[in-house]
Design a protein that fits this description.
Blueprint (H helix, E strand, L loop, with lengths): L19 E3 L5 E4 L20 E6 L12 E6 L10 E2 L21 E3 L11 H4 L1 E8 L4 E10 L6 E5 L3 E8 L2 E5 L2 E5 L3 E5 L4 E6 L4 E8 L23 E4 L7 E10 L2 E9 L4 E6 L4 E4 L20 E6 L6 E8 L2 E3 L16 E8 L14 E4 L9 H8 L6 E3 L4 E7 L4 E2 L1 H4 L26
Parallel strand pairs: 9-17
Antiparallel strand pairs: 1-16, 2-19, 3-4, 4-19, 5-18, 6-25, 7-8, 7-28, 8-15, 9-14, 10-13, 10-15, 11-12, 11-14, 13-20, 16-20, 17-18, 21-22, 22-27, 23-26, 24-25, 24-27
Bound molecules: 2-(3,6-dihydroxyphenyl)acetic acid (OMD) and fe (ii) ion (FE2).
């Protein structure tokens, strides 16, 4: 059994003793100081210790009860206590939320591992958008970014008014400070920081890099399980939200605010992480992908990858996602008389893939940890020649895709447009097509014609 850590989450070897609240979408309550949380009501005339009550709404006030998300934060000072927002420039200008001027390419695209830009930079300054669709201002669409940071955010934080971030670390653990408390997220884990929440990302070691999906509409939810039943895939209890933690620190602090695709910065004279207690169902969370319980074919044929969906952001069309987060994690392949790797196909959805570690069973070479591929709507793709030949000659024995392999896919119904800096990047694999050259044509015997 790969997962042997005690439950709930215990300290993770980096000197932290973080405690988490478990469950997906629960009504949580947490206080860093006993008695800080008003119990009978949300807005007392005077809050305990003179704290300020503030609501953070993640859905419209009138959203149906089952979808409604909001939390109440009890803080040392109201979050409005900052100076004017001024435009905030990043050194490389590689963050996009408007894709109208970007190019949608039918070409199969692949990138070798993304490297950090070289100079010292933090999470925000390192953001590099690869592709996306729609726009933040219409609250529709998504963006896919990579990050590669070599510095902490010091006295700076980010809040994204444009949507939710799903962060997928690839190398280096992240220590994430949020208004709700602290999260530590290592490669093999993911975290979600929703719209509006202030947070700061710091590397636990010297560097960290990874991928990030941003959705401009809605929120992630667990996929329906249908005939699978009540259990399987990601279990709600394995999602972990932080416990309240605060600092009362006077400092020259910059609040960076991403709004309608642009970054703005405002100064304030204190840390924004001053929430002493909170309650509600709108809170960041993390999830250890090792806890995912995959379902797979037990007799024959290759199922569609939707069986590996961890989280989905639904569109308004039933069964169709703005974006799904899907993983290809350790599991047994046992299907008989079956081509076991991913089949050749053309998909009405678009597929962005990344590799956290190891090798992906659909590609023998070229798809590397920290790299990425994009197969857009109806662009044909599938295994390379070497993988095809090995799979058609392989034995019928059960085969384990072991702990060393972990790939993921962001699958979207929208058409991704690729930024010019991603299309012109030095690490774009300009010979990707070559991996599909050399398939021998099937031969129909003349007698069969
Ligand atoms: O293209 C890919 O590698 C992703 C994928 C995996 C799979 O098992 C079936 C279909 C599919 O698109
Ligand atoms: Fe695919």
């Amino acid at each position: 059994m790969a997962v042997s850590r005690p439950y709930p989450e215990m300290p993770r070897g980096s000197g932290t003793d973080l405690k988490y609240l478990s469950g997906f979408g629960n009504e949580f309550a947490s206080e860093a100081i006993p008695g800080a949380l008003p119990v009978d009501q949300n807005s007392p005339k005077v809050c305990p210790f003179g704290l300020y009550a503030e609501q953070l709404s993640g859905t419209a006030f009138t959203a149906p009860r089952r979808d409604n998300q909001r939390s109440w934060l009890y803080r040392l000072r109201p979050s409005v206590g900052h100076d004017h927002f001024e435009p905030y420039a990043t050194p490389h200008d590689t963050l996009n939320s408007d894709f109208s001027a970007c190019i949608s390419s039918p070409n199969q695209l692949r990138w070798l591992p993304f490297k950090s830009p070289g100079d010292q930079h933090d999470f925000v300054d390192s953001l590099f958008t690869i592709c996306g669709s729609g726009s933040a201002s219409t609250k529709s669409g998504f963006a896919i970014h990579v990050y590669a940071l070599t510095a902490g955010m010091d006295d700076r934080c980010l809040a994204n008014a444009d949507g939710d971030f799903l962060i997928v670390p690839q190398s280096g653990a992240l220590s994430i400070v949020t208004e709700f408390g602290h999260l530590e997220v290592a490669p093999g884990e993911i975290c979600v920081i929703q719209r509006g929440m202030r947070f700061a990302v710091n590397p636990v070691q010297a560097e960290a890099s990874g991928y990030m999906l941003e959705i401009f509409s809605g929120h992630f939810q667990l996929p329906e399980l249908g005939p699978i039943g009540a259990n399987g895939l990601a279990a709600a209890r394995h999602f972990l939200s932080p416990t309240a933690a605060f600092e009362d620190r006077v400092s020259s602090y910059t609040v960076i605010h991403k709004f309608d695709g642009r970054l703005w910065g405002a100064q304030q004279d204190h840390s924004p992480f001053d929430v002493v207690a909170w309650h509600g169902n709108y809170a960041p969370y993390k999830y250890d992908l090792a806890r995912f319980c995959p379902i797979n074919a037990a007799a024959f044929d290759h199922p569609d990858p939707s069986i590996f969906t961890v989280l989905t952001c639904p569109s308004t069309t039933p069964g169709v996602a703005v974006a799904d987060f899907v993983i290809f994690s350790p599991r047994w392949l046992v299907a008989e008389h079956t081509f076991r790797p991913p089949y050749f196909h053309r998909n009405c959805m678009s597929e962005f893939m990344g590799l956290i570690r190891g090798a992906y069973d659909g590609k023998r070479g070229g798809f590397l940890p920290g790299g990425a591929s994009l197969h857009s709507c109806m662009s044909p793709h599938g295994v390379d020649v070497a993988t095809f030949e090995a799979a058609t000659a392989s034995s019928e024995e059960p085969k384990k895709i072991g702990d060393e392999a972990l790939a993921f896919m962001f699958e979207t119904d929208l058409v991704p447009r690729v930024t010019s800096h991603a299309l012109n990047a030095a690490n774009l694999d300009r010979s990707y097509q070559q991996c599909w050259k050399g398939f021998k044509a099937a031969q129909i015997p003349p007698a069969a014609i």
